[in-house]
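$ fold --in a.seq
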Amino acid sequence: MRKYVLSALASCLLFTAQAQWLPQNPGFTNDTVGFYEMSLPDKNTAWAVCYDGKRGLLSGIPTLNFTRTLDGGTTWIPGKVGSDLSLRFSNISAINGEEAWVAMHKIGNFVPNYGFGFDKGGGGIFHTTDGGINWEHTAPGELFDDNSVPMFVHFKDKNHGIAVGNPNGGNWEIYLTNNKGKKWKRVAPKDIPAPLSDEKGWISGYSAIGDVIWFGTTTGRMYKSIDFGKHWAVHTVTTLPNTEVNEIAFLDDGLTGVAHLRNYGISRTYVFSTTDGGLTWTNYNQPANWKNSRVTAVPGTNAFVSTSTHPNRLFTGSSVSYDAGQTWTHIDQSAQKAVCRFYDANTGYAGGFHLSGHPFLRDKGIFKSQIVFELPASQAKKSAIEKRRIDETKTTYENDVKVYPTPAKDVMNVALQNELLKGVISIVSMDGRVMLTKTSANAKLVQLDVSRLPAGSYMLRIASDKKTISKLITITR
């Protein structure tokens, strides 16, 4: 009887896991690979790049494999990025089913003192327009050189792209293109806060919402740009010693985010959360059920999904959070998942391990989401925290506050209503400094003298005893 009950329980767990994640055949026939990063340009298309599934991400074994689907995961088409076995993937950014960009770095030795630094430069950005049959190394020696460690490439559309690398020559390497990658221009050092001593970034450790981009560093800091990489500010996520920002994910509002941090000295990971776009962060330490490998946001929802490759079943699988990382609920504990990415609430994939010939891992390795996420409206009814975040979306900006002219030159008008009539209005620089403050004093129209503020982007923050909202503004000269 006991054996029957255990068998029934095992069958139930397997059914439940498959109900949440549908196994996919990645198309490989003689490889052992893990999937490190994915890019979903539309509902039917997804690309996934690989790493050494036997020895781990930072092994010295090259893996140039990738795979893609054009039919929503029904079939996957494998391929390889060139033949240079000294390279390893940093990330991928797909334009559509035929065109994609990848950032690649040279295989070097892992540096223990700087958990995600690498001691060997080189690599670059590679581009395909024929579904990965051919790849072109873009501007070698100009767009990154032999001393570079490319961290990621990201295209917000077919024309506009950004490529970011670790400090080289004393400054971060950040390049921009606005003509489909035909020409790239390096961002001037004066527009990027200087790195600290030995400060580095993590491969694919970034988030992008429209023109806003964030990436984390080995010193517990986060760089942020609100104009797609032209200008940057830097903020402190944590002052905990030897703690590094591995990954950052933001919801559609650009305000609510979760960061995954790691202290390699004591092998400890942390969840940090922000509700003001990254200016300030809260440490939730190691919440129950959180999966400590990767984290991503689900567009169109208030959900964050974490995944893990931990060999212990208690910690592996995936979990979801609806309160910006404070609490997590198990999605599954059945299969290791190194990465998870979503196009929307109905379209997402996770990548684990594929082992040709293995009785359990063959014809698997990628999982398609079958998760039914809670929508923001239903969350707002049961959670005051989530309601406040929903109140901070653009819809609320339009209803409760209007700002004009935009951009402003000398005077900025702030029209208020509802719960913001009795509040404090502040203009905050992108590095967190309060540049101007004025009390609304129950006035429906407040004028701010911005004539003495330098041209640039700022955060307009309006705080009352009922709620606080923030809005990006621009001052010109």
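$ fold --in b.seq
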Amino acid sequence: MKALIVWGGWNGHTPKETGDLFAEILRGEGFEVTISDTLDYLADLDNLRTFDLFVPIWTMGEIDGKYCDNVCTAVAEGMGIAGCHGGMCDSFRNSTQWQFLTGSQWVAHPGNDGTDYRINIVKSSSSPIIDGIGDFDVSSEQYYIHVDPAANVLATTAFPTVNGPHAANGSVAVPVVYTKLWGEGRVFYSSLGHTYQIFEIAEAKELMRRGFLWATR
């Protein structure tokens, strides 16, 4: 199995360190891992087609339309895509095509980093990604994301945790972990991962490991 990790963008999300951690997880599962710190790696569609899994770790950047087309095509043909936090779903705010592929877009994190909140596993879902994993607590950014209604939501978090204008709507369950399909390809996302240290939480790390495996071609 071959995996491609592309990292960059805003350094506050520790993209290099997160990439190194994800590479370690993937190698432990028998993957041959390629790591790139440039989006130019996405220019060659034929090369992308040789990978079984693509892991983007790129926050608040811009993507060439051809590069995005290549990723969408490769995933539609069977290459999996899996990622976390802003590294996948706050990557390219001007690309609605990227958002269509990945399934959501970050819009807010009331309270910023250090917010205490609970991850609630969707008990009614039957996915190997969450099998045997219980609810758990984190202290990090709590992502409010706008989500593709086609997504299969595996975990949620309750808003509001921090008061603000959004609290007038009452309690809502916002997705944290989900999967979706894109042609022949599989998409996995977790909104956890403000920095790589969040994956010191066993459940958060295990969800990513299982998500990588589930999404792989």
